[in-house]
Write the structure tokens for this entry.
Amino acid sequence: MKVFYDPAFYEKLKKVDVRIRRSVKEKILIFSENAHDTGLNNHPLEKEYTGYYSINITADWRALYKEVQQGTEIIAYFVLLGRHKQLYGKDKVK
């Protein structure tokens, strides 16, 4: 699957620790080869994230994406990166 990044995702990625950046790179490579690899825990989201999917980057970090039709193929458009609590908990990014 082809992967594209929202500018905000890319900006967040540049600011995180190098170990997280390395993990993102590894997980996105796995994702592009097999989006449903069990190590990614790829799953659809609900409520305010309906229509989006999440993959595990580490035990605490998540990357959220939306599937977008581009011509005859579907691409993964990654839009958010953050800790679980930042994305889903009381400290979530608004």
Remarks:
- Residues 23 and 33 are 16 Å apart (CA to CA).
- The first helix runs from residue 7 to 15.
- The beta strands are 2-5, 43-44, 52-56, 61-70, 73-83.
